[in-house]
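User: Can you write out an input/output pair for a complex, sequences first and structure second?

Assistant: Here is one pair. Inputs:
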Amino acid sequence: MRRFYVLLFVAVGMGMLLAAAQETDTPSIEAAEHDQLGKYLTDSEGRALYLFRNDERGGPSTCYDGCAENWPPVVFEGSLRAGEGVAESLLGTVERDDGSLQATYYGWPLYYFARDEAPGDTNGQGAGDVWFLVSPYGEAVEPRDEATAAGDEGGKPAAAEGVDTEDVTQDEGAERDEAAAEPDDEGGKPAAAKGVDTEDVTQDEAGEKAEPTEEEGDGADGAETEEIPSDVMAQGQSVYRANCATCHGAEGGGGSGPALAGNSRLGNESRVLNQILNGGSFMPPFGGQLSDEEVAAVATHIRNSWGNDFGLTTAEEVSEAR
Amino acid sequence: MVRTTSKISLRGLLAALVCLALAAPLALAQTADELLDPDPADWPTYGRTLDMARFSPLDEINRDNVDNLRLAWSRGLQFVIDAQFSPVVYDGVMYINAPDQVQALDAATGELLWDYEAELHENTHFLTSSRSRGSVVVFDGMVFHALGDGRLVALDAQSGEELWSTPVGQIEVGEGFSSGPIFADGKIIVGPSGADAGGAPGRVLALDSENGEILWTFNTVPRPGEPGFETWDPPSAAEWGGGSSWVPGVYDPETRTVIYGVGQPIPWWAGEQRQGDNLYTSSYVAMDVDTGELKWYHQVIPQDEWDYDLINTPIIADLEIDGETRRSAIIATVTGFVIVLDADTGEFLAHHQMHPDNTVHLGYEDDGTPIIDDDMRWAADEAGESRTVCPLRWVDFEPAAFNADTGVYFRPNTHECYEMTNAPQPDDWVPGEDPNNAQLEVLPDSFDRLGGLTAMDPVSGDVLWEWTFGYSQRSGVVATAGDLVFMGSPDRGFRAFDAETGDVLWQQRLTAYIQANPITYSVDGKQYVAIPVGGEGPLVIARQSDQPPIVTSDVSIFVFALPD
C-alpha cells in the first residue's frame, strides 16, 4: 500500500516535471548565491554544477564509468540557455563517447554530484581537491577563509590547494526527503542518483563541527564517558589511515566522502557499524576486509576523535552487527 | 516672499505670517527647478548648472574692473588633502567637501555655520581618503556628500546633522569615493572608485534622494550575462577589472541622459591575462536616467595598457554642426583630443587633436573609431620594457568651462610625455591590494610648455588663444558674463583672463599651489570669486626643469571681491 502511494507520488511528480519542461522550452544554466562561497552555477532546478580539474579546459570529459556515476555529466538535448547572471558567450557543449552532448562553461565540462539532492546542496565542493563549483566567470569556486567572508581585508579566495572542506555545508533532512521523492529519470537528471540512500548520507551542519555540544550527541547511544583504551584508538587510527582517510580526510574533514569530524550522526553506533560493514551511498563495504576487532577499533577511533565523543565499540558488538 | 497688496485683510496677514514663518526653512530647500535654472547669485552644483558649463551670468566683476579685486575673506580649512574639489554656494551658504567632512560657511564672511565630520572606515584607501573631487549636491533641504570610504550621506542643510547613510563602495577591497555626487532628476548619482586601490570593478549608481535607496546600478565592467562581458578574455579578468569613475559625470535633462567617464582597466598590464576590448573601461558611457540602461558608449582606448582614465567631466551644449543644432557632449580625452558626441545617441560629431605629438592614440577614423599604435603595447615577453607615452594626462580631473553665448570652450590642459614601464602584477596579488606594477617617470621638458589654458571653438577646433606655463595644469576654470575666465595654477597664481584675448588682467600669488576649482557667486548683490588653495597628497604636479618646486600646505580658501 505504501509503495503504491510512493509510486503515485512519483508519477504525479514526473507529470509535473514534464509539464514544467514543456513550459520552459530550453534548459538553462543559472547562477545561485552561497553565503560563504559566493555565486555558482546551477541547472534550471537549482542543482549545483561542478567542474573537474582533471579535465582539460576546452577538451573532452575524462569522467566515465564509476566517476560518471558519482559525477553525472550534464547532458541535454536541443539548445541551452543562459539565465540571469550567466554569460551566454561562455556556454558550449562537448560530445561524450556515447554521442550525447555535455554542457560546458568557458570550456569546462559540467557535472552534477550524485549526493546533491536539493537546491542549495553543494556537497561536492572541493572534493578530492579536484571537484569545484563553477563561478559565473568560468572559474573554480575556491573556498574563502572565514575572516575574508566576514569582510576582512582583501576578499581573496585562498589558494586552490588550501581547500577547506569544513566549508562544505549541507542542508538538513526536510529538503532531502522531498528530493528523494523526485523521479530520477533521463531529462538531465543524474542516473546515478537512483542508488542514493539518503538515510545513509551523513551530513554535518555549518558551525557545529568545531565544538559539538553534548545535546547534539542525541543518537541512539548518546554521549558516553567511559575510558577508551589508548591502544584501541591507535589501532583504529591505523586502520582509518589505511582504508578511510582517502575519502573522509586525514583528520576526518571529509572529501569525496562526508566529514566525520563533529558529525553528530556518528552517535548512532549501529548505523556506523552497518555502514562500515556493508557500505552504501558510494562507500564500499569493508566487512570482508576487516576483522571484528579492526572494525571495532576504527569505529571507536572515528566516534571519539575530532570533537566526537561517543564511547567504545567492542568486537562483540561488531560481531552481532554482521 | 513678501508681497504687497492693496487690500489688507486678516487672511492676507495670516498668509504673510505663514510665509515669514516658512521663509527660513524654505531658504535651504532647493528644488529641482532651481537646479535646472539656478538663481544667478548661486553656484549650487559642481558645474553651477547641470550641463557642467561652469559659466556664471554675473558681470559685476568684468574685464574693465577686475584689476581692482581685493581679498574679501580667507579661511584655513584645517585639513590636508589633494584638494581637487569645487566649493558650491546656495543662498549665501558655501559648502566645502573633503573625504571625511563637509563644512558650511557664511559665503560673505567665511564664518563657520556647521561642520560634519565622519570617521572613515579603517580600510579606506589613500586614493580616496587623500583627495576630494567634485562637490556636494544641495537639494531639497539636504546636502549630499560622498565619503572617502564609499558611503553616501545626506545631511540636513541647516544643521549638518546626518539624515541617512548608504554604504555604496565595497570598502573591504578599498573601494570608496574620490569625487562628489551629481544631481539627476531627483536622484543622486555616484561613481565609486576602487580600480587602483584594490581592483574593484566600477559602477555608476542612482540613489533615491529621499532615503538613500539604490535605484539602479550600471556596471562599467559588465558582469556575466551583461552586454560587453564577452570583451574580457579570460572572463575572470572582469572580476577585478577596474573601470572606476573617479570624477563627476554630467546629466542632461533634455535627453534624460547621464554620462560618466570610465577609468582604465585593472591591472595596467594586459598581457595574456586581459585580452579583448575590456568594455567599458577607458570609455564614456551614457545611461538612461530612469533605468540606468546603457544608451551608448564611446571607447577611446580598447584594452588600455597606459593608465588612460577617460574621466574628465563632459559639458552638455547645443552646438551648431553642419547647419543643425545638435544636443552635444563636449569631451576632452586624456589622450589629447577634444571630441563632440551627440548626447542622446553618442554619434561622433567632431574631433580635434590638441596635443602636439601623440604616441599611443594617434587619431580617429571618420566614424569615431580610435586609431591606436599597437606597437606601444607590451607583448608577453616585454615586461619591464619602457615606452614613451605622450601624452599621459592631456587632461585629468580638471573641469573646463563653456560660454554658450559666444560658443567658446575654455580648456585647461597639459602637454607632456612620460616614460612608462609596465609589468604583470605580483603572483600573490589579492583583491584589495594595489594591482599595478608600472613605473612612471615624467619627461617635463618634452615640449616648450607643460600646462596651459586653451580657448577654442569645440566645433571647428579653431584655437582663439592659449596661455601656457611650466607646470602641469590641474585646476579647473570659471567663465563669466563679465568676459572673464578665472583659473588657479600650481605656481600659486590665481588669474583672471580676458575671455576674448587671453590677456591676464589680474593675478594674485597665494600661499600654496592650486589644483582645486574656482567659483563665483553673489550675496546681497555683491559678487565674489572663491578659490581653494593648497593641499598635499599623492598626486604629483610636474614642472619644467627651470621652475621652482611647488609649495604645499594645508587647505585654505581665498575669496575676492571689488572694493565697496
